[in-house]
Amino acid sequence: MISDNRVEPEQVDSIIGKVTKYSDHEGTYSGNFSNHFPKGTKYYNIKGVNISEAIAIKLSDGSYIKAVYQGEYPGGASFEWANILWSIAGLFMLVVVTFIVIKKRK
Prior knowledge:
106 residues; alpha+beta; five-stranded antiparallel sheet; two-stranded parallel sheet; 1 helix; rod-shaped
């Protein structure tokens, strides 16, 4: 959870990751995604603070803000009909191509 607390640059330690995917759709991604910060935003551990408690996020202006851990994100890859339809279309095309190849061999 993003807080309003600033982190002083001297409190910031090494980089621990970065945002790899931005999504404003709740529950659609897992891992290093953000619904607030753009892809590429870096995050760091804070000296003397366990990363399971809080991390520092580097803002576009070069300052840092604290994000506190509030448990596992309940989201994850969500069910999407588009994925199902593309899978069915791909399977259908495979069946059609297989049928055509078998028919031509006879």
